[in-house]
Amino acid sequence: MASKRIVVGNMKMNLTAQEINKYLKVIEKKEYNNQVIFCPSSLYLPYFVGKTYGVGIQNIAAYENGAYTGEISALQAKSMHLDCTLIGHSERREYFKETDEVVRQKIKLSLQANLKVILCIGETEEERDSLKTYKVLKKQIVNALKGFEEKELKKIIIAYEPIWAIGTGKTPSNEEIKDTISFIKDIVKDSLHINMSVLYGGSVNEKNIASLNQIENIDGYLVGGASTKADKFMKIIEVVVNQ
Ligand code: PGA
After folding, report:
1. Catalytic residue IDs
2. Strands 156-160 and 198-201
3. Is 169 in the pocket of ligand 1 (CB under 6 A)?
4. Does ligand 1 come within 6 angstroms of the Cβ of 201?
5. Is 209's C-beta closer than 6 angstroms to any atom of ligand 1?
């Protein structure tokens, strides 16, 4: 592995302002050396900027600017000094009907704004059971990333999140995660001719992180539920940062 493993916290639509204040007090006791990225609700992003960790937004608009009530553009995110954006999280694909085309458009706008991208991909339980995982992942990767130049692709990392593992307490075996990450890296290398970092996400917690961290080709983790509890998230970070 070329660089240090990273930990990204996707806090989703959780925590009130009062809870965020307490959260910040806990996380601010530590230096992070940019190995950790916090993705809180957009409202709280300014509280997280300018520290020793990175900050990401959970989603950006598929439009550049203008009359799109309630949306936040990539350019606005960049102008608030954010480092990156999640794109294509399965919850966005499922509940907000984001297609591969929308995902690609969001990546394009993020790169134009000089915002790094964490592209989320993953298969459903049904796709896994019918042995379609690799086919689904390949389609998501190729559709999202085709046509970008090498210098643009270098600003993208992939988060592999099996949908059936998100928020369920279930994870694939370490062997399966390793094989799937290898497959993703090979697809990217073969079709786009670059090496891309791949994170794992889906029920990562303070109990399984030491075991997951044995997987040799993993470049880090996207943590959902466990990132909303500062003490649990700190335990995960410690395992990864101190390895
Ligand atoms: P989880 O969520 O850690 O709660 O499974 C991961 C994610 O959705 O990014």
Report:
1. 89, 161
2. parallel
3. no
4. yes
5. no
Q: Are 180 and 133 in contact (CB under 8 A)?
A: yes
What are the beta bridge partners of residue 220? 6
The answer to whether the pTM exceeds 0.90 is yes
Mutation pick for ligand 1 pocket among 119, 223, 233 (CB with most ligand atoms within 8 Å): 223
What CA–CA distance (Å, rounded) separates 147 from 118? 17
Q: Does the Cβ of 166 fall within 6 Å of ligand 1?
A: yes
Could you read off the pLDDT of 23-66 as tens digits, one per residue?
A: 999 999 888 888 999 999 999 999 999 999 999 999 999 999 99
Q: Which atom of ligand 1 is nearest to the CA of 168?
A: 5
